[in-house]
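Same chain as my last thread, 288 residues:
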Amino acid sequence: MGEAAVARAHRKLSDLLARETGQQLLANRHWRVEMALKPILRKHSIPDIDMLATILDGGGEPELLKECMESMVNNETCFFRDQANFALLTGPVMDSLRAARSSTKRLRIWSSACSTGQEPLSLAMSFLENAEKWRGWSIHILATDISTSAMAQARKGQYSQFEIQRGLPVMLMLKYFDQVDGDWLAKPEVRKMVTFAQHNQLDSARHLGQFDLILCRNMLMYLCDNKRREVLEHLASALTNDGVLMLGAAETVIGQTEKFGSSREFRGFYQRTSASGVSVSSPQRRAV
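reply #2:
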């Protein structure tokens, strides 16, 4: 296949990916996308990605489109990702939310774009490690992702040796996972703390309810500007007035939206602003 055909295929695939998921097909990811699509080409006896892009562009193969989109989206994740920021989350940030919710003892957390589930399971293990501190609390962790295959693995809570050793301390692995046929399966007490559901971040999140904490990490960086603003609008509508948003270490809301501003207490965390139609105070200042 010539360079012109390859360029044409990448343009079509990029447009389709942006339309369906909001993600951009960056030039430095072309090699990864072609590798991801090779099994699909073989499965459907399609000669090359140019022909595949033409078929998808025609709009007559919704299942093939879904299969390709799932192969192209970025599902990179690991346990306790960005350890310093995660420690800030499970320490001071969570303590602040705990003080603010001391009267109700209820906490709702949304792990959005959670991929194969390592992030919400890391949260669940953090709560279990501090069980006495959270005794008597109702803690609900919702984890969502656009990918059907990622959600299937997340619900099962089963990981390969390579996946399990990425970020997960050995003591926690032995405490909260069982070895099954060479893989590692999260124990029931970990899995039961998380509810998994498929959700596209480009869709409204109002039906999901309100959350005290939302994690949307390392997803916005792959979106084009207008889709990034759209997702932030949805996140703002799902966050409580004094709730906290956590983004990836390399992400920011600055210059992206007026719905969020930097947290006054916690660097790298965000809260809703008056532009959201509410007056925002920090969780700590609402403590009783």
